Amino acid sequence: MSMVQNFPFFSIILAMFSGIASSVLDGKRAKHLSLCVIAVTTGMSAAVLRFCMKTGESYTYMMGHFPAPWGNEIRAGALEGLTATLFGLVMFFSVVGGMEHTAADVEGSKQNLFYIMIDLMLSSLLALIYTNDLFTAYVFVEINTIAGCGLIMIRQKGRSLSAAIRYMIMSQLGSGLFLIGLSLLYDVTGHLLMTPAKEAVAVIEAAGLYAVPMLVIMAVVSVGLAIKSGLYPFHYWIPDTYGYATPTASAILSGLVSKGYIFLLIKIFYRVLGRENVIASEIVNVLFVFGLAGMLMGSVHAILEKDTRRMIAYSSVAQIGYIYMGIGLGTQAGMVAAVFHMFTHSATKALLFISAVGLYEVSGDRKDFRSLRGAGYRNPLAGIGFTVGSLSMVGFPMLSGFISKLLFATSALQSPHKMLPTVIALAISTILNAVYFLRLVITLYSIPETSRGQAASPGKSNWKLQLSVVCFILLNLTLGLYSQPIVEWIGSGLAMFD
Amino acid sequence: MDTPLFVNMEETVSIILFGIGFTMLMLHRNLIKKILGMNIMDTAVYLFLAVKGYINGRMVPIVTNQIQDASAYINPVPSGLVLTGIVVSVSTTALMLALTIRLYERYGSLDLDEILMRAKEEERT
ipTM for the complex? Predict the structure, then answer.
């Protein structure tokens, strides 16, 4: 057994213990520890990816001393490695980019608590990606929820607190459904590990037993995770949550947390319930319809919104709709497109949130997007970052958003019944995206009507934010220009799921 | 009296309780009642798991008088899951109660709609 195979376990446990250690450190040390841990785990995830690509197969890692049907397991394959690497990168640059604002938004004595939440968030995301055990997944879903709630409420403003309670309520509804789904599944199959559970599901399906319970399990698990990731009719918590948290928290919550749940859902579809069974049960069609609705309604809400950050948050609703539409297509190509869009969205949305904050800094911190007039000249790099992010969301060639739209459109061609609605919704949604994103970009580069001296003070140069904006732009370009190998990795990773 | 709903009385009850808790958490405006609903929902799942793990006429799965035979004991896994689940629900309940206290101190109300309205007004001023 090679050393690299230990890395998934090491990265989860390292992130968790650094959270514990941060509780006795001061803010500054906790911050440095947190950044080190994120960097190290990202490196480890990249090593896991490289190892799995070289051997061409996934592996399971036994936790404790009980073998497969009883004990707990970690499983790593190409897709797990790739997702963990990308999440690590996005998290690192989000923390770096929002660092100054974190220091300003969080009380001095509570700085270390913020970084505890970051560490726990990292640990739970990695565990959701790597785990091969359903109940472990549930426990880490809850840890993720608690850490997410902590990240929102640590900014002690009225709106952040009310956003946190709404987030918590919606998340608990989702977790409750997920938990009852797991309990029913355990009841039917007798297993909590994904691999034996899938074998048991295959036996049950072949014998034609438990048709109704299996349908209920699929529905309940999908709806539970859809609520938690903010699919369209359950999106009411999103704008407040992303709009009023501190910038790092907004970037992490919109870019990573919702993706963690979607990744878990895809994993459960492939590794437990069986893709064919899920498609046969028509659950995917329901997800497809809600995905389409989300794509359109999210964009409409975003157009009606005045506050820039809430506008970006509503755009997240639309992008989550894209991902569920890809899953809903029910084909392998659709799934690849959905996973690729997951990566696109985490890189782009984090870029948008971080660069929007850079623009606020030079515009007197007002919320209305009209106050950003000319901000693109006052903070050029953040302006470029925001423009790149917007163009990527609209689907400009060379950027990652273009590739995901292309993948969605080509994969739609393979499923004849869903082709027309998909392509029409893609077209309309792209136009709607363009309406509100380009309106923002034009506002950024228009000369302010009032005297230019009023808010033109560039402020102190925030090099951390600049650095993270540059890195996010590069990440976006990498995803856009080197999409071919990444799409191949996703494809082989999904093949390892079966 | 021998319809499946009555034969599996415990499971039926736990699913009904789950529905009650879920609806309370979703629809009630009072935050404390929402938290109560969340607890009812979680407890219903634990009842379901505990019932599923129980086998009539067998012992608690703790080896005390040298009986090593597994067939003498009930299934220990659901009990373990319930214990883990209780820990999780205690921590989420604590977090939600703490948030509720904060919001009550700030807005003097437990009604979620009113809290959201006041938070919006506070931001405007």
Answer: 0.95
